[in-house]
Design brief:
The radius of gyration is 17 Å and the shape is globular. Helix content is 30%, strand content 19%. By secondary structure, the chain is of the alpha/beta class. Helix 1 packs across helix 3. It has one domain: Vaccinia Virus protein VP39 (Rossmann fold), CATH 3.40.50.150. The protein has seven helices and seven strands. The structure holds S-adenosylmethionine. The site of S-adenosylmethionine has 23 residues, from helix 4 and helix 7.
Length: 206
């Protein structure tokens, strides 16, 4: 029997979807299900603005996004499809897993050259700390899905979580690299919920 994972995300559904978004969820989402290969993974893509940028920057690579929040998935679908519901040519390399990423990592042999996690939920209260996704066990799972030169890129504007992640990394076989990075501001970053200014990045490799 599969291990019961601790839930690392908040709600799965927000406000009722528009007719267009519901149609895209019903008819387009199933066509974008992950196949047996993908080159780049983004975990918790939110509304998908960074995932879209990855798809455009890497036209010859399959970019897989995992996100259990249905309104985020619908927002991404709406942004990558035209009025008729056809996926725009620049986004044909996007695959979507609309659920907890651990379900797909535990059951597949993907090997990614890049794994992105931008603004993972910080679960700041001490009693919620166990919900943090980027613990040592999960980082080791990510490490097992990297290509030989692959890297894990983490961004957060929550300093306490940042320090906590670095402590977790020490318990793994991963090593930290130069961590300056210029990437787009995601929706969560723009909300700047932690009240800080710039995110810090952690870049990990084997
Ligand atoms: C704070 S939001 C940040 C969203 C986006 N990356 C951004 O920067 O705007 C964290 C996201 O991670 C997602 N998430 C949390 N646990 C996850 C998991 N186990 N698998 C996939 N996504 C997860 C949540 O649903 C949420 O959308």
């Amino acid at each position: 029997m599969e291990k019961q994972e601790i839930r690392t995300f908040g709600r799965r559904h927000g406000k009722k979807l528009s007719i267009r978004k519901q149609n895209l969820m019903d008819n387009v989402l199933p066509t974008l299900a992950p196949k047996n290969n993908a080159d780049i993974l983004e975990i918790g893509f939110g509304a998908g603005e960074h995932l879209r940028a990855l798809a455009i920057e890497n036209p010859n690579k399959i970019v897989l996004g995992a996100e259990p929040f249905m309104n985020g998935v619908a927002a991404l679908l709406s942004a990558i499809c035209d009025e008729s519901g056809a996926v725009l040519p620049e986004y044909k390399n996007i695959h979507i897993f609309p659920d907890d990423v651990r379900l797909i990592l535990n059951n597949n042999r993907f090997a990614f050259s890049e794994i992105w996690i931008l603004h993972p939920d910080p679960w700041p209260k001490a009693r919620h700390e166990k919900r943090r996704l980027l613990n040592a066990e999960f980082l080791n799972i990510l490490a097992s899905h990297l290509t030989p030169n692959g890297k894990i890129i983490i961004g957060t504007d929550h300093w306490e979580y940042y320090d906590w992640i670095l402590e977790q990394v020490k318990k793994t076989k991963l090593r930290c690299n130069d961590s300056t990075l210029d990437t787009i501001k995601t929706r969560y970053q723009q909300k700047n919920m932690a009240g800080t200014t710039e995110p810090k990045y952690i870049i990990l490799s084997l």
